[in-house]
Each structure stands twice: as structure tokens, then as C-alpha cells.
Amino acid sequence: RRRLAPLNEDNGRFLLLAALIAAYLSAGATVFSALESPSEAAAQLRWNRTLHNFSRIFNISLPELRAFLRSYEAAMAAGIRVDALRPRWDFPGAFYFVGTVVSTIGFGMTTPATVAGKLFLIVYGLFGCAGTILFFNLFLERIICLLAFIMRACYERQLRRSGLLPPNVRRGPAVSGVGRLVGWKPSVYHVMLILGIFAITLSCCASAMYTAVEGWNYIDSLYYCFVTFSTIGFGDLVSNQKATYQHQGLYRFGNFMFMLLGVCSIYSLFNVISIVIKQILNWVLKKFECRCCPKCHKSSTRLSRRNAITPGARLRRHNVTVDADGQYDSDTEGRRLSGEMISMKELTASNKVSLAILQKQLSETANGYPRNVCINTRQNGFSAGVGALAIMNNRLAETSDSR
């Protein structure tokens, strides 16, 4: 009789990630509390001393002084400053605002004050944020295709230099016959390294511009770049807020381009890192698999020695590496075969279908990545995954449990 596992792989990975995120949040809160709490307490003490001294020297009661300061805080929230600042709601200022809305940066230095503006923002942000996330996913897909093309060209050149690839073989159908290029995909770790270098270089260049134009120190500029590009958007530092700048039009264009490229690159880098985190979670789950139930582990080991054959063992004997979007990926329907016993008849029928799918996928990979979906998605449109994670799984190697 088949034993029903209380927790499948997906749920186990989800709960493990939730526990790790909770621990990560707790650790971060502890560190930031230890770092920032003394400074906050000291600042509050200095402010109270200054407030009482000002009230005593100028003979102003504390309630009147606090009422005046509340009015000043309301003016600051409305965008009014002592020094001259650029208008918040002219067309360039409003364009800057909607850009921070749809990209989910949300600095908070500009907010709608009217009821009509707040209601319009709800509808505008709903479609704007959805469209911008789609744009980020399409950018991710194209940057991965570009990196795959460049890395494949470098890989072919390396094979030619080592004599493993004939020099007269060109890209195209002929390449699919070369064994070392069949099914090749770029490594997720190499892509993560390239995207990380690009994001760091972009942040350093943008920080140099903000340091020169805004007058910030370089560390504050790097901090602003990360907070902005990662769409955290605290709003303690905001660029392009002075009334006038030298070469103002050029600076606005550079600021827009740096923010656009920075958000896209950091979004892509975050998704690649998420694949690596998923691999770590899979490794942890595999290490803890069935350790809590020794009887189940022994029974499954004893059953595996009988005539029935598991697909995982057969794949390991033949050293077959399954593609990330293939039948045996942990996120597809094929994962249910990894722990079940099947008969030789079912195994033969399954191998025929799997072999056809694998040959089709390897051929498509060698000749460039097509835009049509694979065969197994005809049964379930979401079996290959959706969103950025599916893009990464379909276009990068080393994303399955076997790697």
C-alpha cells in the first residue's frame, strides 16, 4: 500500500523558505536595532534639550512651540521647504512621480493631496505596476538570451581552440550534431556573476554622477542607488529635487536612464539569486529527507531492490541530465515519478515519450531558444511555471536537483 507523505517537496521547500525568511528578518531586526537605537535615543535627548532651551530663552510656551512645529511638519509633507525647490507637480515632477509609482520605488516625497488624485492613483497604479512587472520580465528574458548567445559563442571558441569542435562547423543545424553542444545552456552561476558585475558597475557610475551633481558623499550615493534600484525607496535621499542644476536637461536624462537600467538589472539579479536560493533549499531538503522516519527510509530502500525500477535510479545509471524545463524537474508534473514504483511496461512507455521530449528540447536548445512552449505544457498551461522563475528555469542550466 502506498504511503501518503505528509509533506511534498514543494510544500516542504515553501515552509523551509518561510522559516529562513523569518529567521533572516529577526536577525536583521536585531542588528539594526543594536546599531540604530542608541543613535535614535541620543538624537531624541538632544532635541528635547534644544526644545526646552528655545522655549526658556524666547519665553514661548511648549504647547505653542509644538503646535508651530506640527505646522512645519505638515508643510514638509506637502513639499514646502525653506530653500527653493523645484515644483513637485509640474509635468517633469509628475512624470518623476508616476515613474516611482509604477516601478514600486515609492520615495514618498510627493503624494497626492486631493481625493480625486488618490482615487486615480489606485486605478493608475494597478495597471501601471502590472505592466511594469511585465516589462521587467521581458527585459529579463532578453538579457538572458543575450548573455546565452555571448556565452555560447565563447564556449564554441573554447572548443575550437581545444580541438574538440571542427573549425568549419558554424552555428545552425550542423552544430546540433556536435555532442558537446547538444543541450548546452549557460550556467546560472556565470549569469549571476555577469549580472552582479554589471549592476555594481552601473551603481558605481551612477553614484559618481550623484556625488558630483547632488553634493552627496560617495557612500550616501551608493546607498541611494541600492535603495532606488531595488525599489525599496525609503525617500531619505531623493535625486533631482533642487530648483536648478547645471546642465539640467542632461542630468534629468541621465538620472532617468540610470534608474531604468538599475531597476531592470537589480530585478534580473534578484531572480537569478532566487534560483540559487532554491537550489540551496533543495539541497537542504534532500539532506533531511526521510531522516525523521527511519522505518519509511528502510522500507523504501528494501522496495527499491525488487524488480520494479524507479526512474531516478535508471537516470543515474545512464548519467542522463534532464533539462530544467523537462519531465523530471521538481516544479513540473513529472516530479511525482521520482519516488513512485512503476512497472516495466509503464517505464518503457514513459521512456519513449520522455526520449522524444528530451530530443526535441535538446534540438531546440542547440539551434536557439524557440518561443513556443514545450510538449508537456499542452496538458497544463502552468506546468512549466510562470513569471521570472519560469524564464530562468527554461533558459539556464544547473537549476534541477540533479546538478
TrEMBL record:
GO terms for cellular component: monoatomic ion channel complex; plasma membrane
Biological process annotations from GO: stabilization of membrane potential
PANTHER family the UniProt entry points to: POTASSIUM CHANNEL SUBFAMILY K MEMBER 12, POTASSIUM CHANNEL, SUBFAMILY K
Organism: Toxostoma redivivum
Source domain of life: Eukaryota
Protein family membership: Belongs to the two pore domain potassium channel (TC 1.A.1.8) family.
UniProt keyword list: Cell membrane, Ion channel, Ion transport, Membrane, Metal-binding, Potassium, Potassium channel, Potassium transport, Transmembrane, Transmembrane helix, Transport, Voltage-gated channel
Location of this chain's protein in the cell: Cell membrane
Gene that this polypeptide is encoded by: Kcnk12
UniProt topology in membrane: Multi-pass membrane protein
Protein name: KCNKC protein
InterPro entries recorded: 2pore_dom_K_chnl, 2pore_dom_K_chnl_THIK, K_chnl_dom
SUPFAM superfamilies, per the entry: Voltage-gated potassium channels
Domain Potassium channel: residue ranges: 86-143, 199-278
Segments traversing the membrane: 94-115, 121-151, 188-209, 221-238, 250-270
GO molecular function: metal ion binding; outward rectifier potassium channel activity; potassium ion leak channel activity
Swiss-Prot/TrEMBL catalytic activity: K(+)(in) = K(+)(out)
Keyword Ion transport part of the UniProt annotation: yes
